């Protein structure tokens, strides 16, 4: 049986850790050719080597870049197209959480930084990838929003603004590009245990962060954190041909928690 991503080229940002790492592994197992982008060269190479060990015949291009730098985004999109001839799917995922604080104390520099990466970065990615996909007349984009992009969580001005912005961009562009055979959706993960969430728990609980985590998940209907692999499966589905008629949608993956906030 043909694998879902055989002969498909997938570009993915934030590939060096967490959700990007898990999605890249899933896509590679299903036959994808990958172009992986991350700011952190070392972790990117580590992930690429891990994938090559698991899927020896995988084709992977690794590109170190900052998604908040428009020229860098333009060039990693061009390089992917040049190397592989097309871009079938784009997981527009790199992001940071930022320092937690009440709005009045949420520094403007921190706000700008979080919005630059999480929102401007997603916009730049869509802008340049959509040029390629429109010319092809096909493609799928998955933007990473968050439960913090559909609900108020608190202490996260920059994160909330950026992730609500990602939801807005997704709906707007999904409406524009559906007619060209391109689907654009967002995922809204709840707390998935990755380096980013570990960082948040440390901000909340310091050395006691594991106990803080246990307390935190008691509020979840499923009483646990999500696993990066679970998000990887959702991303693969949304980038596959099986989900072609899902467009401009925002899909929570949070154990049901966003219905409780
Ligand atoms: P992570 O910290 O494990 O991975 C994020 C990756 O993005 C890292 O490898 C990092 O180096 C890279 N990155 C950061 N800034 C970058 C930049 N400017 N340019 C290029 N790469 C950059 O975090 P994660 O949990 O995998 O988060 C991935 C995405 O999922 C983020 O957008 C995050 O906001 C979102 N998200 C995560 C959760 C969660 O619970 N983990 C929940 C909701 C949304």
From TrEMBL:
InterPro entries on file: NAD(P)-bd_dom_sf, SDR_fam
Entry keyword set: Oxidoreductase
NCBIfam families per the UniProt record, alphabetical: PRK07231.1
PANTHER family assigned to the protein according to its UniProt record, in alphabetical order: DEHYDROGENASES, SHORT CHAIN, ESTRADIOL 17-BETA-DEHYDROGENASE 8-RELATED
Family, similarity comment: Belongs to the short-chain dehydrogenases/reductases (SDR) family.
Protein name as catalogued: NAD(P)-dependent dehydrogenase (Short-subunit alcohol dehydrogenase family)
């Amino acid at each position: 049986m043909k694998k879902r991503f055989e002969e498909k080229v997938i570009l993915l940002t934030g590939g060096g850790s967490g959700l990007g790492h898990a999605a890249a592994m899933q896509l590679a197992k299903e036959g994808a050719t990958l172009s992986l982008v991350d700011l952190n060269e070392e972790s990117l190479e580590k992930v690429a080597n891990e994938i090559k060990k698991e899927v020896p015949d995988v084709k992977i291009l690794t590109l170190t870049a900052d998604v908040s730098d428009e020229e860098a985004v333009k060039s990693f999109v061009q390089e992917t197209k040049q190397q592989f001839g097309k871009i079938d799917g784009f997981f527009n995922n790199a992001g940071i959480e930022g320092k937690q604080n009440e709005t009045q104390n949420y520094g403007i520099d921190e706000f700008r930084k979080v919005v630059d990466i999480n929102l401007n970065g997603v916009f730049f990615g869509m802008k340049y990838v959509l040029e390629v996909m429109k010319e092809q007349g096909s493609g799928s984009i998955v933007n990473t929003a968050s439960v913090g992009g559909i609900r108020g969580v608190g202490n996260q001005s920059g994160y909330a603004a950026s992730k609500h912005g990602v939801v807005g961009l997704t709906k707007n562009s999904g409406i524009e590009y559906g007619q060209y055979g391109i689907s654009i959706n967002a995922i809204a993960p709840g707390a998935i245990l990755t380096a980013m969430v570990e960082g948040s728990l440390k901000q909340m609980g310091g050395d006691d962060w594991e106990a803080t985590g246990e307390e935190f998940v008691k509020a979840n209907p499923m009483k646990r954190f999500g696993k990066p692999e679970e998000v990887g499966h959702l991303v693969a589905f949304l980038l596959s041909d099986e989900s072609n008629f899902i467009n401009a949608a925002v899909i929570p993956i949070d154990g049901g928690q966003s219905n409780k906030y």
